[in-house]
Every structure is written in C-alpha cells, then in structure tokens.
Predict the 3D structure of the following.
Amino acid sequence: MAGDRRWTKEELDILRKQYGVIDSIQLSELLNRSVDAIQWKASSLGIKFRRDDFLLFSEKFDEIINKLNLLDGKLNSLLKIKEKRLKKWTSDEKNYLIENHGKKTISEIAQYINRSIAATDRMVNVLNIERGKNKIKYTDEETKFILDNYKTLRIKDIAEQCNITVSQVNYFFAKYNLKKYGQKGKN
C-alpha cells in the first residue's frame, strides 16, 4: 500500500460512495491504501459506518458462530464416545460374566450386559477367568459357518460374521487343527 501520499478528489469520492457498501479490505485494494488509512480518513471526514458493512460483518460473525457450534457438537460427540469407552464395569456385570462364562458365548454375554465383545473378552482376561477347552462354546451356526468358510475368509471376517472375537476363532482353528486362510504349510 502507499505511504503518506495525499488523497485525491477521485479517491475521496470513491471513499464517500463505497465506505460501508463494500468491506474495508476490498476498498483498501481498490484505493491502494491500508485498511487503517481508509478507516482513519472516513472518520476524519465524518463518514459513518454504514448498515451494509455491519450486515456483512454480522453475516461473517454468524458464519463463524455456526462453525464453532459444529465444532462444539463434534467435540461433544467425541467426549461421549470416550466416556462410553471408559464406562466402568459394575459388580453385577462382572458377576454375570463370571457366572455365565463357559455356559454362554462371549457374544451372548456381551449382548446381555450391553458391552462390546472385545470389552467383554478383555474383562475375562482382567478377571483372570479360567479358559479351558470346555469353557468356550460355539453355537451350531458358528461352527457350520467357520467350517464352511475357513478356507476362503480371513479370521477377522469370520469373527465379524459370527459375532465372536478373533481369539475365539483362533481357538476354534487350534481345536480342530484347521489352517488359516492364506497360511502356507505342509499338505
């Protein structure tokens, strides 16, 4: 922008006609003057801040507030997810898990206590509940699905389809001496 140069009659006319009609940044580019110089000159000439400029500012302010509200909503959603992940186990949930482990599948227990399969499986480890060959039960549907698909699906996909954990699928593979999909070995 220019330094301490005098204002021309044309510049003053543009300033009088456009100040508050277009925003100060556009006016500064049009006149090749700084925003401060434009505002100072307008003030010294008694040119008032026009309603249109205020509306432009108001719209931008509203836009910023809307963006902040969206960010606030996203932040609240993330906090709720984190809070859900940090939900403490009640003694009733732990007792139900202990009493029913080995009698029901992890997915059945998880569904009953409204926990994820992974969280339920982790709690089995935390509580050091004994895992044995007779502890993990598979439904007839799970058994059939695994035997029908173990050659073509990844373990993760089998676990998702059967609604059981990856470790339960691995245990099934070991129990029935099955080779994992893509696993190379002796024929």
Summary: The chain has three domains: 9-80, 90-133, 138-182.
